[in-house]
Amino acid sequence: MYSEKVMDHFANPRNVGEIPDANAIGEVGNAKCGDIMKIYMDIEDNIIKDVKFKTFGCGAAIATSSMATEMVKGKSVDEALELTNRAVMEALDGLPTEKIHCSVLAEEAIHSAIEDYKKRGGKVNENK
Ligand code: FES
Known about the structure:
Elements lengths: L3 H8 L12 E6 L6 E9 L2 E10 L2 H14 L4 H5 L3 H7 L8 H21 L8
Antiparallel strand pairs: 1-2, 2-3
Helix pairs in contact: 1-2, 2-4, 2-5, 4-5
Bound molecules: FE2/S2 (inorganic) cluster.
């Protein structure tokens, strides 16, 4: 049912955790399954220096968070905004149809963090 890459990113997720002084935080949820994804970024001069995630969700949500964070690390915010759930799924060698919404959550979480960065003007604030 799941590709080896999905199983690898689920069993050994990359970039799990929080960034205490993150200047971009995005949180999204899916009302149907109740899963929540939170992304923390440290962005300097529009480059994503570090990114971490916490996902309270299914295995596919954890795998897509892990892959999505790997794909945006070191990229500019504009490049990260171009990340699509389809690209994340392709990087994971596919997901079952009923798990596509999990990858959408990853795309939305990345976008939400970058929107937060833009709103804050790059500053760290207390709104963690
Ligand atoms: Fe909802 Fe995977 S089942 S994010």
